[in-house]
Every structure is written in C-alpha cells, then in structure tokens.
Design brief:
One of its GO terms (cellular component) is plasma membrane. This protein is an all-alpha fold. The protein has helices at residues 2-26, 31-52. It has two helices and no strands.
C-alpha cells in the first residue's frame, strides 16, 4: 500500500511540473523559463498538497 501511495505522490508532483512546463510553452519562454516555471510549480504544488493534508513540510 505504501508503494502505491508513493507512486501517486510522485505522479502528482510530475503533473504539477508538466503544468508549469506547458504554461512556459504557451508563453514561448526559453529553456531557463521552462526550468524555472516547471520547478516552481512542482515544488509549490507539492507544498500546497502537504499543507492541505496537514503533513509536516
């Protein structure tokens, strides 16, 4: 059960990152913009998820 939850956790962070990358693509940013926006949304999305679930950050 734990490995299933871990896989879903990683999948969620990957989807947040992909969302940031798609936004960067729509705004026609360069590779630095892709990296920054993807990382920012990945970390931010994971942090928001932890705060909603009341998990220590």
């Amino acid at each position: 059960m734990t490995s299933y939850v871990t896989i879903l956790d990683y999948l969620g962070v990957a989807l947040f990152t992909a969302t940031g990358a798609l936004t960067a693509s729509r705004r026609q940013l360069d590779i630095l913009g892709f990296t920054f926006l993807g990382t920012l949304t990945g970390i931010g999305g994971g942090t928001v998820r932890d705060l909603i679930l009341d998990v220590p950050v």
